[in-house]
Amino acid sequence: MKTWNEIWMEKGRRALAEPGRDLASLIRADGFDGGAGRMSEEMFERLARRVRRDLGLRTGMSVLEVGCGAGALLRALGGSGLSLTGVDASETLVDVAREAVDAELFVAEASALPFPDRRFDAAVCHSVFQYFTDLEYAERALRELDRVSRRGWLVLDVPDAALRDAAEVARRLAGSKPGPAHLYYTPAFFTSRFPGVRVFVRELPGYSNAAFRFHVIRSR
């Protein structure tokens, strides 16, 4: 079976071969085009508004997205006066984002971000932690998020270990494509590592995975 990295590289190559770089095409390239993970353009716009509100983002602030993929969320965050940066391990998806998003973009692992300490006002990671290889990698990635952000960070769409069985059944019933196993987490994975971390659940109407996911925020 292919690894997640191989799958995302292939998605990027297919997206590069297709015309158009609108938000809908970026959503497809980022894998939100089917099964339990399907998201619409309106849903991404709503997600971007929530990110701005949760992190208290204002014009002129710098924001890093870790695991930006083809740039769907960065595109939705655009036009709000933010200084945007994205990083992803998939070179081909970053190439797509470079054609579509007004942001600085880098190819790098989430566990080794190429930025100095406190480089950004805030950082966000959306629907990425399930693709990490193991919890050791996830911890390194989380500590990197914390290292490079001054005001805080937001990790969205984290698979809840307590709901793993129900989530996998729901994904199959929704027609999600088979692939490598997702990585699941307990809230304590996050709250035990940093003070002031808050775990919360929030519905995103129309997004089937939301019933089995939680979100994490740290504000300084």
Please summarize what this structure is.
By secondary structure, the chain is α/β, with parallel strands linked by helices.
Largest sheet: 7 strands, mixed
- Domain count: the total is 1
User: What is the CA-based Rg, rounded?
Assistant: 16 Å
Low-confidence spans: pLDDT under 50, at least 5 residues? none
CATH superfamily annotation: Vaccinia Virus protein VP39
Q: Which strands sit side by side, in order, in the main sheet?
A: 3-2-1-4-5-7-6
Estimate the mean pLDDT confidence. Answer: 95
Rough outline: globular
Number of strands: 7
CATH class: Alpha Beta
Order of helices and strands: HHHEHEHEEHEHHEE
Number of helices: 8
Helix content: 25-40%
Could you name the CATH topology?
Rossmann fold
Helix/strand structural class: alpha/beta
Percentage of residues in strands: 15-25%
Describe what you observe in this structure.
It is a single chain. Helix content is 37%, strand content 20%. It has 220 residues and is an alpha/beta fold. Helix 5 links the parallel strand 2 and strand 3. Helix 1 (4-17) packs antiparallel against helix 2 (23-29). The mean pLDDT is 95.
Topology of helices and strands:
Elements: H1 4-17, H2 23-29, H3 41-55, E1 62-66, H4 72-77, E2 83-88, H5 91-100, E3 104-107, E4 120-126, H6 135-148, E5 149-159, H7 164-173, H8 187-191, E6 197-200, E7 213-219
Parallel strand pairs: 1-2, 1-4, 2-3, 4-5
Antiparallel strand pairs: 5-7, 6-7
Helix pairs in contact: 1-2, 1-5
